[in-house]
Amino acid sequence: MVETTPPHREHVEQVRELLEKFHVENHLLDASAGERRGLESTLLHRQQAVELERRLRGLHAADLADLLESLPPDARELVWFHIPAQRRGEVLLELDDAVKENLIAHTSKDDLLSALAGLDADDLAYLGKDLPADIFHQALEAQASEDRRWIRDSLSYPEEEVGHWMSSEMVVVHQDQTLQAIQALLQQQASLPTHTDKLFVTDQRGLLCGVLFLQDILVNAPDVQAKQVMTTQVVTFAPDDDADDTARAFERYDLVSAPVVNERGKLVGRLTVDMIMDYVREAAEKDALNVAGVVEGEDLFAGIWASARNRWPWLSINLLTAFVISRIIGGFEGTIGQLVALASLMPIIASVAGNTGNQTTAIVIRSLALDQLHAGNIWHLFRKELAIAALNGAVWGVVVGLFAFVFYQNPQLSVVVTVAMMLTFVLAALFGVSAPLVLERMGGDPAMGSSVILTGVTDALGFFIFLTLATLFLV
Question: Does residue 181 share a domain with residue 79?
Fold first, then answer.
């Protein structure tokens, strides 16, 4: 039976425990006194450094990044500077933007250049936007002229387009080559590019003719030409294609790699599933933060002032809606004063209706992300969501109405609560569909602050409807 490698998470936890042990040892040493204290401190730090480097040596770059992201600043810098310089470039590729930016800022120019020296053109292009301009320029000049041109072309595309994520590493063969010649070509390679499941077949002008799967090379006769067995029905992408659409295509067609061609059909790059997964992960993290109203990625251990400022924009909008709600409630002080039960029932209506709106918004944002919504089905979605909201409003409105009757023995109040719940549910669904669609139509991110906006609007309308009905029928 083959032994399996211990889980990487266990190794990361061992490093965290080691750092905690170092903290305790250093604290005890600081508390001691004596002439030998300086020598003991030096020896202890050397011993700790050796032990830490030994533990870090066996961790994958992704696990090192995970460890760094979970550590407070002091411990993070300690670990970072004990990672060998030649491995730091790999770790930078795996880090979240906020942590990456912090470590780059605290790393010397020479150390950064050493970390970047071992990266290929694709990886350097990926880090280009995060590096200081002078350091990136020096690292770029160390690349071959062809790689420099590739990096500049790659950085000319925004992150939302395929060109930013495509790679120059690919195996290209000519359509007239025999499978035997192609096998010899592959055997001469020190290694194949990652996620190589197919070779790209071109003609003399560099135009893509088809793809040759590795299994085709193995199962066919050696003297057969590539054009005789290649697959011509190929999923291709253009450099300016939308990355979201491309990610969905990778999932739909179970792609491992795919060619990127320009408007003339010339092969210009390759997309791989790992790069697509990186894009999807970054986009998902951004959307998760945007829904909550956090403007951009935030380091878990970032400074208090920086973190607070990052959350101000949508908090200010939230505060504005809160003022509006307070004025709505203030306008009905007389009604609330005559029937105090209204004050205890208002939060129930706002809370449940807000949840309904958030459910609708989540469905719409997901549909937009999957490109399932278009002019022909938007009205169908509106009708469906409004019908669901009306049904749920009736069901749960009756439940809340019965609750109100049991506690306050007022049939008219129960009816008002039920009707208010139904109307608020329908309006919450209406805004739950409309808000993401409007943001998307305006060229914004449908997830950006949608929860904050929807909660404020739903609360304001819910209170207004409930208190208006109460004023008309109960007072």
Answer: no
Contact at 8 Å (CB) between 261 and 240? no
Contact 403, 418 (CB under 8 A): no
Question: Does residue 286 sit within a domain?
Answer: no
Among 118, 146, 163, the domain boundary falls at 118
353 pLDDT band, cuts 50/70/90, is confident
Query: Region 70-91: what's the mean pLDDT?
Result: 87
Domain span at residue 443 reads 311-473
Q: What is the count of structural domains for the chain?
A: 3
Q: What is the pLDDT of residue 23?
A: 66
Which long-range contacts (C-beta less than 8 Å, at least 24 apart) are formed by 327-331? 328/460, 328/463, 328/464, 328/467, 329/463, 329/467, 331/467
- The whole-number pLDDT of residue 172 equals 96
- Residue 174 pLDDT class (50, 70, 90 cuts): very high
Of the ranges 238-247, 359-368, 428-437, the best mean pLDDT one: 238-247
Does 291 reside within a domain?
A: no
pLDDT at 28: 62
SS (H, E, C) the chain: CCCCCCCHHHHHHHHHHHHHHHHHHHHHHHHCCCCCHHHHHHHHHHHHHHHHHHHHHCCCHHHHHHHHHCCCHHHHHHHHCCCCHHHHHHHHHHCCHHHHHHHHHCCCHHHHHHHHHCCCHHHHHHHHHHCCHHHHHHHHHCCCHHHHHHHHHHHCCCCCEHHHHCECCCCEEECCCEHHHHHHHHHHCCCCCCCCCEEEEECCCCEEEEEEEHHHHHHCCCCCEHHHHCECCCCCECCCCEHHHHHHHHHHCCCCEEEEECCCCEEEEEEEHHHHHHHHHHHHHHHHHHHCCCCCCCCCCCCHHHHHHHCHHHHHHHHHHHHHHHHHHHCCHHHHHHCCHHHHHHHHHHHHHHHHHHHHHHHHHHHHHCCCCCCCCHHHHHHHHHHHHHHHHHHHHHHHHHHHHHHHCCHHHHHHHHHHHHHHHHHHHHHHHHHHHHHHHCCCCCCCCHHHHHHHHHHHHHHHHHHHHHHHHCC
Residue 25, exposed/middle/buried by CB under 10 A (0-12, 13-18, 19+)? middle
Within a domain: 21: yes
Read off the CATH number of the domain in which 226 is found: 3.10.580.10
My answer on whether 316 and 451 are in the same domain is yes
Residue 388 lies in a domain: yes
Q: Are residues 265 and 317 in the same domain?
A: no
